[in-house]
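Recall the central idea of this unit: under ordinary conditions, the amino acid sequence of a chain determines the structure it adopts. In this exercise we apply that idea directly, starting from the sequence alone.
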Amino acid sequence: MVDIRPFKAIRYTQKAGNPENLITQPYDKIDPEMQKEYYAKSPYNYCRLILPMEQNKYEAANQRIMQWLKEGIMAKETKPAIFVSRQEFSLDGKKCERTGLIAALRLYDYCENMVFPHEGTYKAPKADRLNMLRNVQKDFEPVFLIYQDQERKTIAFLEETAKTKPIIQVTDSLQVRHTVWKVTDPEKIRQLQVSLGAKTMVITDGHHRYESALAYRDEMRSKGSWTEDSAFNFHMSYMVPVQEEGLVVLPTHRLLKEYKLTPTVLEGFKFFFEVTEIKPTVEAIENFLTEHLNEHAFCVFSGTNAYGLTLKHDKAVYDFVNANVSKETKIFDVVILRDIVFKHILRTGQLSMDENILYARWTREAVEKVNRGEASIAFLVNPINAKTVAEIAQQHELLPEKSTDFYPKMVSGLMMTDISASEKL
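Accordingly, the structure predicted from this sequence is:
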């Protein structure tokens, strides 16, 4: 049974000022320029907790949260609650909204088949978040998960709750409107717990946070007495039904620093792909990807040149794919890109995030990074849909790191959870 619990949220008070000057994008989406901008917005901006500028950022975050609680900048609520959170946003000129539930979700090892990852992780970000947990003993940011709700029981709960008066309404820097409602009624919470009990969850965003929380839980258990109600056995989580219409997945484009688009590389492409020269523009790249949505197609951009690549329907190509690409996930573009283009043609070996591979959400962002010399070559891909992500995860198959980008991200700074040793849920 999946176990979710209400929790006593720690939230900003009115003393902290305008919420729009306090909230941030998730820590791993904050670049140095954004960090400076957030710091300038307010002495209480959430970036000062999740990504401090100080050399010892973990100690700085701990001292800061203690000081803010002491001064009344933040306060812990007296009643445990669960929350309904909605994001309203525009994408390609279309208005969308996505609604989910925020609660404390019990941490399950992956082998328990209750919570499933869908992509691999890197060691460095996990070590970073584990150090943060050790120092602050708070869940600063939620893990984002999806689950099936064909009977629409939890969807009905979300819709009914959203008819009540919200406790938070704020617009973030990407013009996403965030609205939060609070539920403290024990009977309503109990009904929701029953509805969710038989579900399984798939992590969409926050794999590093989740795995760091598992490690922290195990450390805390090894130190002494604990119970199943100890808060460190849980993690603050944002959970969305797969059936939610506003569940949008964007592609995550790959940028390499140390590899060039040489004539030899182009020849290597031609064995596996139909190679089409296209204009080196954002519009031409996006048009090619849209026109080849279900064809294992990519675009490659090197600054002066761009090409569209479409996997050939040749027996020799299929034989190679079947022999050299991950069995269950070979139907995904990002896997073919990793196993054929990166490993076989470019012979990249193991790539390390930020050292020799970068990621970008938008085509324009990827193109500009290459044009600025931050990367030498960009590979642009089509997105994977949410339903497919959920299905493949529950077959115990992992996609490559950063294969999906569920948009928009949950904004950080709306609330946090206390997971100190004495806290119970």
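The radius of gyration is 22 Å.
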